[in-house]
Amino acid sequence: MVGFNEQEAVVAELEKQFSRLDEAVANLQRVRANLKRYKASVLKAAVEGRLVETEATLARREGRTYETGELLLQRILEERRAKWTGKGKYKEPAKADGMGVVPEGWTNASLDMLSTDSGYGTSQKCGYENDGPVVLRIPNVQHGVLDLHDLKFAPTEFKLSQSDAVSSGDMLIIRTNGSKSLIGRAAVVMAEPQRKMSFASYLIRFRLSSVDCIPAWVSVVWQTSQMREWIEAHAATSAGQHNVSMTVLAKAAIPVPPVTEQARIVAEVDRHLSIIREVEAEVDANLQRAQALRQSTLAKAFEVRS
């Protein structure tokens, strides 16, 4: 049993050490908040034509012509018509809702215009113990891409056709959840999956146009705060569940720059986001170290002294 004076000294030292830890943690949390704001500002600049020099400006300076966003959209719509697989007569795409002013050389399109197909996922029951095709779920939709660490599978008898299987260019969107912040979150499949995959009924798939870098561009637009606000404003709520329908999502407005400008923007966004991810990982590691240090300091303070 330590004496009263020694107890006071231990408490005083703990308070000093924890005060330093609290300050360090607060600083790390501020860095994380600033990174979130920085990411939002990068994405906002990207979809407003302020992140890189526009193709219109470059073409004017170089005295040349270029394919505008409007001409690119015409190419995409031609592909959409050519790849039509629906029943009956070709169905014209939905018009965009909430279109904003776009830079010179850009145009607006709906998500439907930039997709060749859309549909809901399977209601087939899946589980870890099954050995059928993978069934992608909400936990697999993370930060704009697929996270394949936690997979469930359909039963062996579940038959998945090649055309229905998830493929490169597919955009999977969460359509229903108890958390409003999750609905509308999406993952764009950038590479052809190495195994057959289906997706659950609470996800919606839009099969994005294969023209140029449309999938990568739509992924950038979908991560913006403007898109997040639009989705939440158009969500429905029933019995504690938030929902966004395929019909609503089809009307989401997507700004379309010239294709060469898209490629430059996507590359610049990737560069910024890569730096952000690296710093975030370091911040998270330091926060874990701070927690571990707090625990070890407490353990040492209350060791039984012999």
Question: Can you tell me about this structure?
Answer:
The chain has a domain at 67-85 and 101-257: DNA methylase specificity domains (Adenine-n6-DNA-methyltransferase TaqI, Chain A, domain 2). Helices cover 43% and strands 16% of the residues. It has 7 helices and 14 strands. Helix 1 runs antiparallel to helix 7. The model has no long low-confidence stretch (mean pLDDT 90).
Per-chain topology:
Layout: H1 4-47, H2 55-62, H3 69-82, E1 107-110, E2 115-120, E3 134-136, E4 141-142, E5 145-146, E6 152-153, E7 170-174, E8 176-177, E9 186-188, E10 197-199, E11 203-208, H4 214-222, H5 225-233, E12 236-238, E13 241-243, H6 246-250, E14 253-256, H7 259-301
Parallel strand pairs: 3-10
Antiparallel strand pairs: 1-14, 2-11, 3-6, 4-5, 7-9, 7-11, 8-13, 12-13
> Count of DSSP helices?
7
Q: Helix and strand succession? A: HHHEEEEEEEEEEEHHEEHEH
Largest sheet: 4 strands, antiparallel
CATH-derived topology of one domain: Adenine-n6-DNA-methyltransferase TaqI, Chain A, domain 2
CATH class term of one domain = Alpha Beta
Name the CATH architecture of one domain: Alpha-Beta Complex
CATH superfamily of one domain: DNA methylase specificity domains
State the separation between the terminal residues, measured CA to CA: 9 Å
Basic shape: globular
Q: Using only CA atoms, what is the Rg? A: 25 Å
What kind of assembly state do the chains in view correspond to? single chain
- Widest β-sheet, arrangement of strands: 2-11-7-9
Query: How many β-strand stretches?
Result: 14
Helix content: 40-55%
Our estimate of the beta-strand percent is: 15-25%
